[in-house]
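Lab manual, section 2.4: Encoding a predicted structure.

Procedure: take the sequence of the chain (279 residues), apply the prediction step described in section 2.3, and record the output as structure tokens. A sample record is shown.
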Amino acid sequence: MKAAKLRSMKMNDEITSQIIDITPAMATEWLERNPDNRPITDSKVSQYSHDMKNGKWDMNGETIKIAIDGTLLDGQHRLWAIFKTGVTVPIMVVTNLPRSCFATIDTGRPRSGADAISINDSEQGPNARAMAAVAKLLFNYGRNGKLSTKHARPPTNNDLLDTLRDNEGVLESVLFIKQLYEVKRSCSASGSAVTHYLFSKKDRGQANEFFVTLNTGANLDIGDPIHTLRKRLNEIARLDGKKSADKFIPYLIKTWNFCRAGKQSYKLLIEDDFNYKII
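Recorded output:
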């Protein structure tokens, strides 16, 4: 369908739809007709802006919705992203909707990163949630060198897919950790999988041995870094019990680095400005 501008579309009683090349000026004009919409979520605008700016915004059939009186009913985050990036984006626009339909808009569940991974590769479906969690950590690691779930800009689904394409071997690490019950019980599964993947890039054999030993606790002497880590994990479980990746990843990296350096460890302390460098 040929692109057109909203002002050229007839406002009548008939609901119409067209693909429109929405310019920043048009986005500004439409946002001024937005009296009743929900508050803006800055992180969502940033996600959309990133995809638009990098040519990753696809025509996916989702629409901008305009009421019969010209009120913007749906699409404010996309319009704000167009305004912020200064790019023109083709989007399907539906007009002449009744104002009353606002209550039924956006009531479905948003498509998650795990959904996108499963759709992109059906074979990863059973592990898509774990893959998405690891991809989020790797995305942030690539941006600021920290293996953290805290993001200045949450990754888009396209970011997660790109991250997994750039990091072949994540699925193998997810499956490897999946079989280690004690590791999953005492640590974060995503934190264990992402560190196994990164440790494997240094030495896969040693990475496998590290996590198997952490899982079994076999043949560990006092002073062995893994023995100390197991003790610390038990302490954390008694005091807190929450298994967030942010909490456990520094302990895994610090213990790995001690093992790689051939050093003993009798106590594990994590500094506030922890260095995520892996040796």
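Check your result against the sample. The mean pLDDT is 87.
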